[in-house]
Amino acid sequence: MGLLIVYAIGLLMGAALVALSYFSKELDHKKRSIFVAVIGVITIIGGLVIGGFEGMPISTIGIGILTDSILLLIAGNRSMVRNVVFALVVLVPLAVFIYAGVDKFYGNNFIVVAKNENMDTYLKQYYEELQVKTDTQGFKRFEPNNGEKFIVLSLGKEKQGNNIEVAGVEKQGDRTLINVKTFDNQSTEKNPTIIIFLDKLGKNVVVKDADGTVYEEVK
């Protein structure tokens, strides 16, 4: 949901850029599309250069802006189609914001973090440590000063070859319940691991597998 909100912001920013482009009488619909597309591409590249979780929202905003430029190009000179497009790029983000506001009171949003070179340093170091200390089973929480919240769950060498997916995250008062599902898919990880980014995390965290296993916190 977090990235969807950021994408919606990108759509609104793209719509604002399109509106501003009408102040220049020299721009036809194709030039307006190119103008907005260039800004979108620059924004995407900027996010990729920054990298990691800091750059991801910036690139997502760029994708939203680029979407507007593509829709504008498709609409062409047809005023009715343009009006419909503008209405959509305003109403869709508003609907997303309303849904996000309601969802904030009833559940947690999460993202499964890709295990690659773009991980934050402390996550990468812990992940590499888990692949060496393969007897480590359980979850560890990370809450750095920048407000990000992560849960890293490892299954231990006994479940080598398994994969993990998040079935859902529930907010229960001051407790966050993370439901996961593990299954054999011939994973090459020595210690099967999943890294979960959450928008909020309760004081007490419970990580429960679909098979009934409740994982303990790694200190």
Describe what this molecule looks like in 3D.
This protein has 219 residues and is α+β, with helices and mostly antiparallel strands. It has two domains: 2-103, no CATH class; 110-215, no CATH class. It contains five helices and eight strands, in the order ααααβαβββββββ. It has helices at 2-21, 29-50, 52-75, 79-103, 121-132, and strands at 110-112, 138-142, 149-154, 162-172, 175-184, 193-198, 204-209, 214-215. It has a four-stranded antiparallel β-sheet with strand order 1-6-3-2, covered by helices on one side. Strands 4-5-7-8 form a four-stranded mixed β-sheet, with no helix packed on it. β4 (162-172) and β5 form a beta hairpin. The model has no long low-confidence stretch (mean pLDDT 86).
